[in-house]
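Let us work through a complete example step by step.
Step 1: write down the sequence.
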Amino acid sequence: MTDSRVYLDANVFIYAIEGSPEVAGPLQRLFELFRTKRGVGVTSELTLAEVLPRATTVQRRLYLDLLIWSRTFDLQPISREVLVETADYRRNAQMPKLPDAIHVVTAIRTGCRTVISADSRLKLPEGFRSLLPDPASVFRIVQDLS
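Step 2: predict the structure and record it as tokens.
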């Protein structure tokens, strides 16, 4: 991997907290690596709005602990600049979904050329790579970052 920052879409956190052990286990090991390498794992504050609505009380606490209180992830704000850039990106890349475009623009702005997402609708710029949050991809990322 040529870069050291990795962007995580909201669905990655859902799989890690709510997914089957086969999927959640490798993601949780990746999160442990991010705990030792602060600033490598990046996501948008939008992730909070995406993961919390359907969360149980226990899951809500896990999400808040993981995303905010643990300081494991570089949680990026949705600023006016991000929104303006997102509007331009949506138009140019023809991305219909606002949340998807916010995630892509945040990855671009933070220098994350690797994006982990289960969303096939993400349209990344040339030179960026999208990886699924599956065990094989997560293992490869852990190997690259170790």
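Step 3: interpret the result. The chain is about 55% helix and 10% strand.
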